[in-house]
Amino acid sequence: MALIITDECINCDVCEPECPNGAISQGEEIYVINPNLCTECVGHYDTPQCVEVCPVNCIITNPDVIESREQLLAKYQALTTGAERAPRE
Ligand code: SF4
Ligand code: SF4
Question: What predicted TM-score, i.e. pTM, was given to this entire model?
């Protein structure tokens, strides 16, 4: 599952630098998570780092993006493989 930031976000900017996939960015009103980049931190950490640091606990599971741990691991591998291949192409 990718995670999603609710409108309780106070735009504190603490989560953005913690994301190992660069999935978090500042949206029009609150911070947002790109579901194509969020692996729930699978492959990098045991727990979602953004959830760990958010002071108002406004980061939850996105009910529209349900993925198994295997799918998240595959996404992580696709993201990291792509990053490694990019300089050679
Ligand atoms: Fe980034 Fe991990 Fe949060 Fe997903 S769960 S947005 S990968 S820090
Ligand atoms: Fe919003 Fe929480 Fe991220 Fe702060 S840490 S910007 S409150 S989602």
Answer: 0.89
